[in-house]
Amino acid sequence: MSYINQEKYYTNNGVTPTNENWGSYQYVSLKDIITNFMLMYSGNHALVNNMSRYKVLFHAKRGIQELNYDAFKEIKSLQLTVYSDLRFVLPSDFVNWVRVSMFKDNTIFPLVENIQVQSALSYVQSATATFTYDSSGNVNTQASALDTARKDGKLNSIYLNQARMESVNIPPFNEDY
Question: Do the strands 121-123 and 141-143 form a parallel or antiparallel pair, or are they unpaired?
Fold first, then answer.
C-alpha cells in the first residue's frame, strides 16, 4: 500500500517544490528488503548460512521477475493531453510505456505501439493541464474517448490504409527539445 495518495504525488499538496514526489516510488525498496532479510535470516543456525549479499539480491530480483510474469499481468493504459509546455508527470506506478500516439485530423497515428493493449484510461485534466482529484485524493479518470472511438471503428487507422502519414504535417525532428 502506498504511503501518499495521487494528489500528493502530483501536487505535493501545493507545498513548494510541487514536483518533490515526481518519479519517486512509494513502496518498500529492494535494498530495504535485502537488508532486513540479511539481518533476520542469515548467519549460523539461520535460514541462510553464509550467503553473499549479491546472491540474495539475485534471487530477490528473480522472484520479482517471476511475480511480474505470472501474477501481475496488469497493463494500465493512460491517455494524456500534452499541452504547450510539452511535458507531463508520469504516474507513480509507471513501469514502462506501451504506446505513444499522435491524434490529428480524426486519426490516431501511433508513433510506436504495442498492439496487445486494447484500451486506455484517461485522466481528467483541467484547462491548465493539471489533474483533477476526488475527495480521497485519487486522480479522476474516465474512459478514453479516443480508444472508445477506435474500438467502435469511428477513427481512421494507418494500419488499415485509411490514412497516410504523408497527409499529416508533422514538424521535422528538432534536437533542441
Answer: antiparallel
DSSP letter for each residue of the chain: --SS-HHHHHHGGGPSSTTTTTT---S--HHHHHHHHHHHHBSTTSSB-S--HHHHHHHHHHHHHHHHHHT------EE----TT---PPPTT------EEEEETTEEEEEE--TT----EEEPB-TTS-B-B-TTSPBPEEE-HHHHHHHTT-SEEGGGTSS-GGGS-PPPP-TT-
pLDDT in tens, 37-87: 888 887 777 777 788 889 999 998 888 877 766 666 666 677 777 777 777
Residue with cell 505535493: 12
119-164 confidence digits (pLDDT tens): 667 788 888 878 888 998 888 888 777 777 767 777 666 555 565 4
CA dist 170 and 110 (Å) reads 13
Dist. CA 9–CA 15, nearest whole Å: 11
Q: From residue 12, give the alpha-carbon distance in Å to each of 25, 93, 124, 127, 175.
A: 14, 16, 18, 20, 32
Q: What is the pTM of this model?
A: 0.35
Q: Which of 79, 33, 24 is nearest to 56 (CA)?
A: 33
